[in-house]
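Look over both lines before class:
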Amino acid sequence: MKTRIFLDTNIVIDIIGDRQPFCVSAANILDLAYSGNAELYATALTFANALYVLRKSLGTEDATRYLRQLNEIVRVAPATQHEVEQAFRSENRTSKMPFSILQL
């Protein structure tokens, strides 16, 4: 079974925006996906927020192009009211992550 990795907005911005020193670690996550050892997930909101931030430094056209390329290897995970309610009912909570809205 492949490792499942959730990309939050900061990781996406690190990768595409080449934010030092974080981009190196973030790029390692991409390597895992390209090598077939991981499945990457993000929410639609991650893409929207990343575009909002990245368009300021890269321009809308380039930011959109890079996000489209990333979207080719990332599965968009649902984050609807149903998933949030399910997470609150989940018994698989930890002290570090009180709930997860994603059923990865």
About this structure: The first helix runs from residue 9 to 17. The first strand starts at residue 3 and ends at 6.
